[in-house]
Design brief:
about 170 residues, five-stranded antiparallel sheet, three-stranded antiparallel sheet, about 35% helix, globular
Amino acid sequence: MNTILFETNRTMVRKWTPSDISTYYLLRSDPLIMKFIGEPLRDKRQAEEFLISRTIADYSKHGYGRYAVVLKASGDVIGNTGPLYLKDLGRNDLAISLLPQYWGLGYGTEILKECVRYAFEKLALPELIGLVDPLNVASSKLLIKIGMIYSGKITYHNEICNLYTLKKQDWSNK
């Protein structure tokens, strides 16, 4: 049984497991989801390699990482969220990606608010950042909605990104 890390009214968030390859591939190969994130995964073999050698490996290496978002009503995995340690920046990037049919329904706000709480209260992270493609207006609005502050532009992996930040001491536990 996979332990639930935190819950919202409509979702549960847990660690990814090797048995999640098909859903992970669905999320990471969808061009709509990946439009502002990076290249979609090509096949399930690549998804398995990425899931096991990066995502699941982060749990052992850092104690946290990106997690599976599970819909309570059905038990279906509908997304990916969590703080990811970016070694080259020495900071933790908070992100969420959901299957397109769940966009615009308030899931992002609901999940990220609890993810921030989890990161600050359970993981004791001092700060979270959000790196967003300047054309991704929806993600920028979402990060502002959960309390992150626009902190300028940053070049990350040769891409210009909007940088959003939230320090634990500035976070109000509402």
